[in-house]
């Protein structure tokens, strides 16, 4: 069965991403586009547009040409968007790099993407230099701030070089080249065209509208496609304001909401957890908040409800997508009043979905059954850079992309994401979703955070193991954890082992890094 959006199709947006986002900058003028949430520095929409044009001119003068790749290696700053759009205006594709990447990881991305230019910040300069030396082929490293021996983006703003006149084919030319593990564990360059990213903005805009006067707090990383779309492209396109924080620190986060009267939050589940449970929330005036959108990882319905009730807000809205989908396919509309708890939303315009059988991927799941989510629409990536076989395994000849996620659809078209296909635990033939058990664990008042992964027991069977972070100052035993879960789930879903941690390993997007948990388990097992 093919599920289709209940919303009218939208035409593809055939514009370069810098024009799609900044095309109305002159109209918005001095309205604040970006505010540094730490020091208060403010940049208006028109100035941001001018800065991107000067950076584009300086990059072109330096030698950046259409088809080049520029690596942007930085935490969230108000300079990040100016560099991103300046690079695309010069004709380059931007490969965004995790600011905490190791030298080896960074070098691997530089080599694979064939990047020739790096823009970083002075605290990360040593890593960038070493990665460039290891990868080879880097022509120059720039910094967003200042550093001896390196040209600064700040100096580029005074460039008198002519603005480059680059002809871009939005359907074919790459705007962004983020790296994603997809449904395997090997990071690959995701080729996102100007059209796929820009069109996804139009697909999402009617369901989660924003405009002048709206203020979103950007703590999710811009290098991740979720942050790039939800916290840069979408709000800047509509004249909204983005308050920028370099990382998530709960006190700084809450203070920024209060000081800058933030009304929109785009977050991942760990932040929802903090808003629902941490005592510091009560020390701040968060009355400006109007809505919260959560994505990047599964969010338990009970946790979402606890968060919205505590803050006196409408239910936390979820969204769904992945890097390979530019990234959005589903969202709970901001105007929705009947969204069932736990749903990630409905199909956005111009998007189709199917559910494949978990037992036989060549067949579709029966109505009402869970299945692997596959998507078709204009937001599907062009493919993986230099990896035709991996691309073919991900996207079939009819354009359907396999997400690797397990979902079900109710009678009203709401999608519920259960878990990852490869993360489902097979306990004696039964399928156990780690996210289901994590949701139960997080309802315990002495558990601050938790993750679940499949491990092998003494008999060679895969069993669910819980990794638990106790609330500060709270005591809880392994037996109590297992008993608590056992009382609330079917017998085959019970947690069989427990380990206490100081912190659950998570990506900056909020996803549990189960691979690290499994590696931890293997290293602890006797050889």
What sort of overall outline do the alpha carbons produce when their principal axes are compared?
globular
> What are the segments in which pLDDT stays under 50 over at least 5 consecutive residues?
none
- For the secondary structure, the number of strands is 27
Helix content: 25-40%
- How many strands, what sense, and barrel or not for the largest sheet? 9 strands, mixed
CATH architecture of the domain at 424-524, by name, is 2-Layer Sandwich
Beta-strand fraction estimate:
15-25%
Can you identify the CATH superfamily of the domain at 424-524?
ANL, C-terminal domain
Counting helices, strands and paired strands, the structural category is alpha/beta
Number of helices: 16
Mean pLDDT: 93
State the CATH class of the domain at 424-524. Answer: Alpha Beta
Could you tell me how far the N terminus lies from the C terminus, measured between alpha carbons in angstroms?
48 Å
Spatial arrangement of strands, main beta sheet: 3-2-12-11-13-14-15-16-17
Output the radius of gyration.
Answer: 23 Å
Explain what the structure shows.
The chain is an alpha/beta fold and 527 residues long. The protein has a domain of 101 residues: ANL, C-terminal domain (GMP Synthetase, Chain A, domain 3), CATH 3.30.300. 30% of the residues lie in helices and 23% in strands. Strands 3-2-12-11-13-14-15-16-17 form a nine-stranded mixed β-sheet, sandwiched between helices. Strands 1-18-19-21-22 form a five-stranded antiparallel β-sheet. The longest helix has 18 residues.
């Amino acid at each position: 069965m093919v599920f289709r959006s209940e919303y009218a199709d939208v035409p593809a947006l055939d514009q370069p991403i810098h024009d799609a986002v900044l095309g109305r900058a002159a109209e918005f003028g001095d309205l604040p586009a970006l505010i540094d949430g730490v020091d208060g520095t403010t940049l208006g929409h028109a100035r941001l547009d001018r800065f991107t044009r000067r950076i584009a001119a300086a990059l072109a003068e330096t030698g950046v040409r259409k088809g080049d790749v520029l690596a942007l290696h930085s935490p969230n700053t108000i300079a990040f968007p100016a560099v991103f759009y300046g690079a695309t205006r010069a004709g380059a594709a931007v490969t965004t790099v995790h600011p905490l990447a190791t030298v080896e990881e960074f070098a691997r991305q530089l080599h694979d993407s064939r990047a020739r230019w790096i823009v970083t910040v002075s605290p990360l300069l040593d890593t960038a230099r070493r990665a460039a030396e290891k990868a080879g082929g880097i022509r120059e490293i720039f910094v967003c701030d200042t550093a001896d021996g390196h040209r600064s983006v700040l100096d580029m703003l005074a460039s008198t070089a002519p603005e480059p006149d680059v002809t871009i084919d939005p359907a074919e030319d790459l705007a962004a080249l983020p790296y994603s593990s997809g449904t395997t564990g090997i990071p690959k360059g995701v080729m996102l065209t100007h059209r796929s990213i820009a069109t996804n903005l139009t697909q999402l805009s009617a369901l989660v509208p924003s405009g002048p006067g709206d203020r979103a707090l950007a703590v999710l990383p811009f290098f991740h496609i979720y942050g790039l779309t939800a916290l840069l492209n979408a709000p800047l396109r509509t004249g909204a304001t983005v308050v920028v924080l370099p990382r998530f620190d709960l006190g700084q986060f809450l203070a920024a909401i209060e000081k800058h009267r933030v009304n929109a939050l785009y977050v991942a589940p760990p932040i929802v957890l903090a808003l629902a449970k941490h005592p510091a929330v009560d020390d701040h005036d968060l009355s400006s908040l109007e809505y919260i959108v959560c994505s990047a990882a599964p969010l338990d319905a009970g946790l979402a409800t606890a968060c919205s009730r505590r803050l006196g807000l409408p239910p936390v809205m979820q969204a769904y997508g992945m890097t390979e989908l530019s990234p959005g396919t589903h969202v709970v509309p901001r105007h929705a009043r009947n969204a069932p708890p736990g749903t990630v939303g409905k199909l956005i315009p111009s998007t189709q979905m199917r559910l494949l059988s978990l037992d036989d991927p060549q067949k579709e799941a029966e109505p009402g059954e869970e299945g692997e989510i596959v998507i078709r629409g204009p937001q599907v990536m062009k493919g993986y850079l230099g990896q035709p076989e991996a691309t073919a395994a991900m996207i079939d000849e009819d354009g359907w992309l396999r997400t690797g996620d397990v979902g079900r659809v109710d009678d009203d078209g709401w999608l519920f994401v259960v878990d990852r296909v490869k993360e489902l635990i097979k306990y004696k033939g039964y399928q156990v979703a780690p996210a289901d058990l994590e949701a139960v664990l997080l309802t315990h008042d002495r558990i601050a955070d938790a993750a679940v992964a499949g491990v092998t027991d003494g008999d060679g069977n895969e069993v669910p193991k819980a990794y638990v972070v106790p609330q500060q100052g709270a005591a809880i035993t392994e037996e109590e954890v297992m008993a608590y879960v056992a009382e609330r789930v079917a017998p085959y879903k019970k947690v069989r082992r427990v380990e206490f941690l100081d912190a659950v390993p998570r990506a900056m997007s909020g996803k549990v890094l189960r691979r690290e948990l499994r590696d931890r388990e293997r290293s602890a097992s006797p050889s």
